[in-house]
Amino acid sequence: MILELADIRIQPGQQAAFEEALHRGVQSVISRAQGFVGYRLRKGLESPERYLLLIEWATLEDHTVHFRGGPLFAEWRAIVGGFFASPPQVEHFCQV
Q1: Distance from the CA of 57 to the CA of which of 3, 38, 84, 94 falls in 20 to 30 A?
Q2: Closest by alpha carbon to 83, among 46, 37, 32, 41?
Q3: Tens digit of pLDDT at every position of the chain (96 positions)
């Protein structure tokens, strides 16, 4: 299993709308992606415009090839992309 960590910075004052859109986007779009296992969202306390989105994928390729390279990615970005202050920083982790 692979953990995707997306470090997201949003526009100030948009927290409630972003959180609703993110949950809706995961439930309606990402959940349909091949290899999607689950997700968690964490919000910064010192930086309330900073979020960590943690998504579990069955394989790295499920995220990087099948999701990012397929039509679902555009659907996802249409829902949440307008909130981003800058492009999310994404890294992948494996269990050791």
Answers
A1: 84
A2: 41
A3: 999 999 999 999 999 999 999 999 999 999 999 999 999 999 999 999 999 999 999 999 999 999 999 999 999 999 999 999 999 999 999 999
Nearest to 31 by CA among 75, 1, 90: 75
Q: Residue 95 carries which DSSP code?
A: -
Among 95, 96, 89, 63, CA closest to 5: 89
CA distance 2 to 20: 25
Residue 84: which of 53, 54, 62 has the closest Cα? Answer: 53
Q: What is the tens place of the pLDDT at every residue in 13-34?
A: 999 999 999 999 999 999 999 9
DSSP per-residue letters across 50-88: EEEEEEEESSHHIIIIIITTSHHHHHHHHHHGGGBSSPP
